[in-house]
Automatic annotation (TrEMBL):
Belongs to the TRAFAC class TrmE-Era-EngA-EngB-Septin-like GTPase superfamily. Era GTPase family. The keyword rRNA-binding applies. Probable GTPase that plays a role in the mitochondrial ribosomal small subunit assembly. Specifically binds the 12S mitochondrial rRNA (12S mt-rRNA) to a 33 nucleotide section delineating the 3' terminal stem-loop region. May act as a chaperone that protects the 12S mt-rRNA on the 28S mitoribosomal subunit during ribosomal small subunit assembly. The keyword Mitochondrion applies. HAMAP family: GTPase_Era. GO terms for molecular function: GTP binding; ribosomal small subunit binding; rRNA binding. Residues 138-142 are annotated as: G2. Residues 319-321 are annotated as: G5. This is GTPase Era, mitochondrial.
Amino acid sequence: MAFRAGSRFFRGVISRRPVVSGLRGSASRFLPTGNAAWSRGGRNGFIFTPACFITSDVLLSRLMKGTAAEADGSFYRVPASVLPDSGEQLSLLLRHPDQPDNSKVLKVAIIGAPNAGKSTFSNQLLGRKVFAVSKKVHTTRARALGVLTDGDTQIILLDTPGLTTASKVKRHQLEKSLLVDPWNTVKEADLIVVMVDVADRWMCNSLDFEVLKCLAQHTDIPAVLVLNKVDQMKAKDRLLDITAELTCGVVNGRRLRVRPVIKPPWAKKSPDRDLESSPDEENAGHEDGAEPNSLLTKEQMKVLRSQQGWPHFKDVFMLSSVDPEDVETLKNYFMVAAKPGPWQYHSEVLTDQSPEEVCTNIIREKLLEYLPQEVPYSVTQTIDLWQIGENGELDVTVKLYVKKDTHMKMVIGTAGQMVAQIAREAGEDLSRVYLREVKLKLSVKLRK
């Protein structure tokens, strides 16, 4: 079992420098391995380097040999973009893949509880903001696909809505896609990435029960654990205990040795999964076929309810998805894990979303960011104008429909300042996605 510091290590691999001797001589770059995989020491009681990962010695050996990337410059390929014309974007999606003879591919399903940072990670990896991101839950409302093509390898990211229950969807009047899309997406994957927000001290001690059910139903697909938002943690030594809890003390079939620590009062009691939804509510969701829980027996469900973590993770990563170097570590892991096979998309494809879908998602992101409580979830959108001018500018006009007069006042804001700010910031984001100036106009209407 190896526990290694990621970002600095991979920089050495990419440049083909003799990194082995240098790393072995630096305690700040390497953490102990083997049976003594966990160590507390130093001034703060724990030596920690961001973008660390726990992995098998076999994979580490492959990474150190430089198989993750070539040094021909292709590693720093300029990210693709979304074409602003729907027809051209569709045509690009249908183009025959321009793959080399030795092509490799990997489909990665990113799952986790709502607001774990899945879309933020995907955007950082792709190099463009194609998925909506906000601090509120259920920002991603449907399954979306991102494509990263680098050299001879194509990584297909399957960004999913946060796993939730039928009772929550009904209670908050959310789309049924939030129930169906994550489960269907995982079936396509070669690798499952389970993302956990370690900055949420109330939820980081156990995996979301929906995540556990998903893993239990796809034991044939390798899974890795990503502890996200480590930059927001003050007590980094907590990562050791969180890792032990979420992996049941086992990674890649080998048991971790973690010294016991005195936990703070708030960590003594793990979240009770039965507080938010009763068995009756969950069964009500099963009857209409919204959740594929029937694949698990009652006995299996009972066992899962007694678990805090999953003992079959292949590897564990600790990173911050807003840090490019941290994300580069996981990118290299994907490159190594990719298997020989045909690409599914042309190398210029960035996402399977239409330009209009990208636009409405970015606008929804701003609504969620600036409007309180349930207001943004009740807003619907209609695109009235989508026109590319002779100078290449994209003119977009979108109508926002709200349910109540009070909601309408909130969306408009004092002297129209709120809707103007949303239009301005969304337009700036879209300009970076389409690589051209975007003039976005928003109007607010009361829904009949």
